[in-house]
Amino acid sequence: MSNPATSIRPADVAKAARKIGTPFYFYDADVIRARYLALRGALPERWRIYFAAKANPNLAILGIYRGLGGMVECASAGEMLAAVKAGFKGSDIALSGPVKAAQEHAFLKRKKIAAIHSETETELRGLDALGVRQNVALRLNVEFHRGRVTAGRIMSGGMDKFGFSPEEAAEVLRRRDGYKNLKFVGFHFYAGTQMLSARSWLDAAEKYALAAAAVCRKTGFLPEYLNFGGGLGVPYRADESEIDLDDLGRGCARLEKKLSGLAELRRAKFFVEPGRYLAGPAGAYVMRVVALKKMRGTNFAITDGGIHHALLPFRVSREFPAFLVGGRGGKKRRYVLGGPLCTTLDQSDLPIDLPPLREGDLIAIGNSGAYGYATGMHFFLSHPLPAEVLQDGGKLTLIRRPSESEHLFRLQTRMPL
Ligand SMILES: Cc1ncc(COP(=O)(O)O)c(C=O)c1O
Q1: Long-range contacts made by residues 288-295, C-beta under 8 angstroms, separation at least 24?
Q2: Which pLDDT belongs to residue 275?
Q3: Could you give the number of structural domains in the chain?
Q4: CA–centroid distance, residue 274 to ligand 1 (Å)
Q5: How far is the CA of 89 from the centre of ligand 1 (A)?
Q6: Ligand 1 atom closest to Cα of 193?
Q7: By residue range, what is the domain housing residue 191?
Q8: Atom of ligand 1 lying closest to residue 274 CA
């Protein structure tokens, strides 16, 4: 599973390229299922998994997680609407994000969800004023020992904008009876993304849970919901390896035992909400080599795909996890890959070793099943939006059409205001 190239059948990719043109996203439903089930199998039985829709909100992909019995963590009204369209019930949806504005309010007025992860008192007052009963969990922003937690990006402690400090959370909970429509169910936490060490993830989770327990001791609050967030990483570079699921699972079981032994947390149920780990390796962004050239000793492969469609897969690591679809014999060469945008951001920082390329070859950027389509700078340089294709049981399905140029103009008006 660690090699993102393995599950993708070159003949299927070539067939999709013939039928819809390049560039496009290509996902493998079997890999999606296998990764979900592997994590499910590793975690203690009582833990439940939300899929972080921000990683890949395509309805067909969300539908696979629903079919597996997963739940979904959303961060906007748009993602919650996608979740509902994909068949999730309100009780399977959690809402995160630093801002819940009019559109989220409109959704929450219509549908009760499992938990709203709340981050400010202003937000709590706004939610209370909606006049409908909703569950809220306070997102805790906990200081932890950064030396012990290694992540691609840390999002708690320090100057990170998210959530409540434990002291503020305690203040809110002391006044919880003042919120007539909100049921305070527990806590949410998100340490950071792209953690490849189970120990790092577990250290952060334990620190957060103990901070939550301390808040409970001060306030007499008994949580029923402890959400440890996402953050499980996937290897992008050759020198990185998959997070050890056995270590993670054993650590979660130990953590559960320890936390359930604390009087304050005895009623808590445990949740995680990964995105990248579940969906990343299930997808590739496929583009065509349109030109080859050599300048000052560097081989450039110019491609029709780039960061307008796939910002994070290209930028998360200085080496793109790129491979030649179908492979080719011959001694590898170093190539800098460059996309169609007028910026050097749209090229690999480091050369990549690939078999000798030819114009017309298909190059795939692996690990693009998460934070791929959704992170593109879709309007920069006014190129069409890419298609998305799902391979499932030998069948290829177009799950999003590529756009016509019309998408560029649809919302533009000359409406007097
Ligand atoms: C609140 C929250 N939950 C879950 C996730 C998913 O994180 P990851 O893809 O690192 O597992 C994110 C990502 O930013 C997030 O902000």
Answers
A1: 288/17, 288/22, 288/23, 288/360, 288/361, 288/362, 288/363, 289/357, 289/358, 289/359, 289/360, 289/361, 289/362, 289/363, 290/359, 291/359, 292/357, 292/358, 292/359
A2: 97
A3: 2
A4: 6
A5: 21
A6: 10
A7: 57-274
A8: 11
pLDDT at 320: 64
pLDDT at 71 (0 to 100): 98
Judge if the upstream peptide bond of residue 384 is cis by omega within 30 degrees of 0.
Answer: no
Distance 291 CA to ligand 1 centre (A): 37
399 near 390, Cβ under 8 Å?
yes
Q: Which of 274, 289, 324 is the last residue of a domain?
A: 274
pLDDT tens column, 267-289 = 999 999 999 999 999 999 999 99
Q: Ligand 1: which of 155, 273, 278 to mutate, judged by most atoms within 8 Å of the beta carbon?
A: 273
Is pTM beyond 0.70 here?
Answer: yes
- Residues framing ligand 1 (Cβ under 6 A): 52, 54-55, 73, 96, 190, 193, 229-232, 273-277, 370
Q: Tell how far the Cα of 289 is from the centroid of ligand 1, in angstroms.
A: 33
Question: Alpha carbon 90 to chain centroid distance?
Answer: 20
Q: Do both 74 and 140 map to the same domain?
A: yes
Domain boundary residue among 274, 302, 330?
A: 274
pLDDT < 70 stretches in the chain: 1-7, 145-152, 313, 315-320
Closest CA to ligand 1's atom 4: 230
State the DSSP H helix or E strand holding residue 139, giving kind and residue range, or none if neither: strand 134-139
